[in-house]
Design a protein that fits this description.
By secondary structure, this protein is mainly beta. It has a single domain, classed as OB fold (Dihydrolipoamide Acetyltransferase, E2P), CATH 2.40.50. Helix content is 0%, strand content 50%. The protein is built from no helices and 9 strands. Strands 1, 2, 3, 4, 5, 6, 7, 8 and 9 form a 9-stranded mixed sheet that branches.
Length: 103
């Protein structure tokens, strides 16, 4: 099941740098449908009673991330998965970008 998430009431901050997503068997970088490398971005999410950490996959490297860097997440989708007895939720976004500090 694919569920879009309204990110309008949630603030996101990086929990560390983006890491390339690698194929488990070949250790080669995983690519999206356009041939762009996928990266996993660890994020803190907080707002309206939510406090959690998630990892979001996004096409292309997100430069300049360090712990607690504020980011904007565009078109966040949660997808449920099941493999045998294991199950969970994965997250994918169209874009993750640094939030510019206002003066």
């Amino acid at each position: 099941m694919r569920l879009p998430i309204d990110t309008g009431t949630v603030k996101f901050a990086a929990a560390g740098p983006a890491e390339p997503v690698l194929d488990y068997e070949t250790r080669a970088p995983k690519l999206d449908e356009n041939g762009t490398a996928l990266f996993a971005v660890p994020l803190f999410a907080a707002g309206t009673g939510i406090k959690d950490s998630i990892t979001v996959k996004v096409a292309g490297d997100v430069k300049g991330l360090s712990e607690f860097t504020l980011v904007k997440v565009t078109n966040l989708i949660a997808t449920t998965w099941e493999v045998g007895a294991n199950h969970g939720v994965s997250f994918r976004a169209d874009r993750i970008e640094l939030v510019k500090a206002s003066v």
